[in-house]
Design goal:
Blueprint: H1 11-41, H2 53-60, H3 65-80, H4 83-89, H5 95-100, H6 106-120
Length: 122
């Protein structure tokens, strides 16, 4: 059985392993977006006997309905804005944030930037 204790590690090793985990975790978060994005784009669920990506995810992979919906929506958004893959892989954006991207119209984004800039002055 694997021990999850880190008490035997020196301080610098704990910092190093945590940093490596965060970087690796970001990459492993971006991967689940890239694959379904391509599968959806190519409609590879059709030869498997499914009429939609949603049906494929819930039927073949037994994803909960809400998880399938969120994953597909995030993958499609990332495909539309490829910079999202890097942002997720680098830990600058999480999957919940990806789901908000389509909601950010240019005027909404400008207003949000102005509010953030004003808040930094306080």
């Amino acid at each position: 059985m694997k021990s999850w204790s880190r008490s035997h590690l020196a301080d610098h090793e704990v910092v190093r392993t945590f940093t490596a985990t965060v970087v690796r975790e970001g990459g492993t978060t971006a991967e689940p977006l890239a694959d379904p994005s391509e599968l959806d784009e190519r409609r590879l669920y059709v030869p498997a006997g499914y009429s939609s990506m949603y049906a494929y995810c819930t039927g073949t992979h037994h994803m909960p309905e809400d998880a399938a919906f969120k994953r597909i929506r995030a993958a499609r958004t990332a495909r539309q804005y490829p910079v999202i893959f890097d942002a997720v892989a680098e830990g600058r954006l999480n999957l919940s944030g990806v789901l908000l991207v389509p909601c950010l119209a240019s005027e909404t984004a400008d207003a949000a930037r102005q509010a953030l800039h004003a808040a930094r002055r306080f």
